[in-house]
Automatic annotation (TrEMBL):
Residues 32-54, 686-705 are annotated as: Disordered. Residues 32-43 have a biased composition (Polar residues). It holds the Pfam family F5_F8_type_C. Residues 1-22 form the signal peptide. It comes from [Kitasatospora] papulosa. Keywords: Signal. This is Discoidin domain-containing protein. Residues 686-699 have a biased composition (Low complexity). Residues 13-151 form the F5/8 type C domain.
Amino acid sequence: MAVVAGLVLSLLALIPQSPASAAPALLSQGRTVTSSSQENDGTPASAAVDGNNGTRWSSAFSDPQWIKVDLGAAASVSQIVLRWEAAYSTAYRIEFSSDDNNWSTAYSTTTGPGGTQTLDISGTARYVRLTGTARATGYGHSLWEFQVFGTTGGGDPQIPGGGDLGPNVLVFDPSTPNIQAKVDAIFKQQESAQFGTGRYALMFKPGTYNNINAQIGFYTSIAGLGLKPDDTTFNGDVTVDAGWFNGNATQNFWRSAENLALNPANGTNRWAVSQAAPFRRMHVKGGLNLAPNGYGWASGGYIADSKIDGQVGPYSQQQWYTRDSSIGGWGNGVWNMTFSGVEGAPAQSFPEPPYTTLNTTPVSREKPFLYLDGNTYKVFVPAKRTNARGVSWNGTPQGESVPLSQFYVVKPGATAQTINAAVRQGLHLLFTPGVYHVNEPIEINRANTVVLGLGLATIIPDNGVTAIKVGDVDGVKLAGLLVDAGTQNSSVLVQVGPEGAAADHSANPTSLQDVFVRVGGAGAGKATTGMVVNSDDTIIDHTWLWRADHGDGVGWETNRSDYGLRVNGDDVLATGLFVEHFNKYDVQWYGENGKTIFFQNEKAYDAPNQAAIQNGDIKGYAAYKVGDSVTTHEGWGMGSYCYFNVDPTIRQQHGFQAPVKPGVKFHDLLVVSLGGQGQYDHVINNTGSPTSGTSTIPSQVVSFP
């Protein structure tokens, strides 16, 4: 008994007399950080929270300057450590905020000593900002590290950033054995898997690879892991052909090539694709053939930020858009070849040959991409360009490098709840290749968040929810994602900005790049509208919104989707807009000062009869409608095609509909009846000759009004 009593007393002595509290933790490392300025590309704000005492943030050489870290959630701050570089702040203040709007000063000094300062500061904050008001030198304010310590008060569990890229990202270096065999095995699996669930990214570390022919099938992306295309060179090819479909390339969808240099084996690389198959940031040291072997049908496509030293041969390609690139020449044109900001592009000459050429692209920002900085994975986020011409990667690439540690690396099985918690915590999102079901919207409400998909990562909304919602905030980047409608109707699949959004984002717009929407094809799916853009200044750079005309779950009502794209925001720019087969309007544009450079459309094949598409007293719904109240809008290089194979007697009154006002302008429009399966009466409104017969000859309008 005495022994037992002694043990009890000993145990009681170990019990704390008050509730235990968590030890302070480093909360700032790897978090989202912004600043008022940076000295140069080598001193970004992110370097002050990367845990590396050899990298730093440095501001412009003026006062005041600030750096701000988002802790991801409200925290109890207990200590701040400042590791100053020689260019330190003599006067500064530390400020706290819970909403990034209202700030309180937690500490200030006018006699800062530099070096390493440990400040015991207490308070509750999600956002912590250091504002420097006086400098010790003529240089900027410069920190090796800005560290915030404290504890979080419950709420979302802490989600770690970084980690491995999962089993469907294959990473090669020049010494990897059997590269060709491994690439061939993926292609064999994916060559004809048009509606399969396999998703793959083939990533190549910087170096030179000899005797490679990487054939790229469905849901496969190939990319170099250098900062520039020439960092990763193939003495060989990256090939897309159409042998699986008897030489017809019109269904070569959902694949990509990025950030590689090619020395093609026979001098010309073949990239025979149609929609949703971007060719970005590539350097072809030779020619580029966009047609399948045998010159069968092809209906693409898109090139951006690429250098083709030789000639591009479209051959049988019906239409194509090339942006901010450099080419050695262009071979021919079929219906609609459009260029903006392309060095070496053919001169404006629509309708014969059918070239639409803009000297520059008004606003552009290249797609973010994964790369290796030494042995560290980072995502490079290119800077916005204005009136761009030529590639972005001559000289030092302009933009920001974000360490993978600041990303939640999303893998199949992740829930929307965890994904949203990661965003609230301050992490960006990197979706590894796979198919993701979400039962609530993925919500991106933090400015400058990067959401990047690898290997055509696919998001399917369950229970009729919207798959992705972006807040009315600056600088969100959505890229490399396929959103596939679920079996229960969603009102919208992708929404950028809430209804009524009105904030000015002209300095730092949200961008959507290679964001694709599909309704049906992989199974029955429904959505009233594919994509809605409410935020002003949004850049839509290459999208394919597709109501399926073949595959599983296809029928006039089976995969019902009335509208493809609706734009309500002002000053929205679309570069490379592909929208097809929706039951009513494919595009509705109600925002002011909208611009579209290149539009490709097919009306829904499966309309059962004329009555099914009757639009009041108008025969059919326009492929592209500008709202009656709009006063300024402009479009270049735009085509709509019909193929009413269920009822070839259907007539479509026009492909385009717009108010007749001085500020509403269109350049180089066409409509085509494919083989006489249905006809157009006009091109735009009541302007333009009707199509007729079975000869598939376009009716064109060079300028409207």
